[in-house]
Amino acid sequence: MQTILYTILQQLKRSSKNQEGATAIEYAMIVAVMTGVVIAGYQLLGEQILALLQSVAEQITGPGEGG
C-alpha cells in the first residue's frame, strides 16, 4: 500500500514540475511577442516620436538652445 501511495506522490511531483516548465515557456513566449511589438512600433513610429520630442524641447528651451 505504501509503494502505491509513494508512486502516486512521485507522479504528482513530476506533473507539477512539468507544469512549472510549461508556465516558464509561456512567459518567455509572451516576452518575445511583446519585444517584437515594441521593436515594430519603434520601426514604424520612431521618427515621429523623435520629432515630437524635439518640438517639445524647442518649446521649453527655445529654438537652437537645446544641448
Task: Explain the overall architecture.
The chain is mostly helical and 67 residues long. It has 1 helix and no strands. The radius of gyration is 27 Å and the shape is rod-shaped. The N and C termini lie far apart (78 Å). Keywords: Membrane, Transmembrane, Transmembrane helix. It comes from Desulfurivibrio alkaliphilus (strain DSM 19089 / UNIQEM U267 / AHT2).
* Rg result: 27 Å
Mean pLDDT: 80
Which blocks of ≥5 consecutive residues have pLDDT under 50? none
Q: Report how far the terminal alpha carbons are from each other.
A: 78 Å
Provide the β-strand percentage band.
under 5%
What spatial form do the alpha-carbon principal axes imply?
Answer: rod-shaped
- Major sheet characteristics: none
Q: What is the number of E strands?
A: 0
User: What is the number of helical segments per DSSP (H or I, 4+ residues)?
Assistant: 1
* SSE series: H
The amount of helix comes to over 70%
SSE class: mainly alpha
Keywords: Membrane, Transmembrane, Transmembrane helix
InterPro entries: Flp_Fap
Transmembrane segments: 21-45
Pfam families: Flp_Fap (PF04964)
Give a brief outline of the structure.
This protein has 67 residues and is mainly α.
What labels would you give this structure?
67 residues; mainly alpha; 1 helix; Flp/Fap pilin component
Q: What's the structural blueprint in terms of helices and strands?
A:
Blueprint: H1 2-61
Keywords: Membrane, Transmembrane, Transmembrane helix
Transmembrane segments: 21-45
Protein name: Flp/Fap pilin component
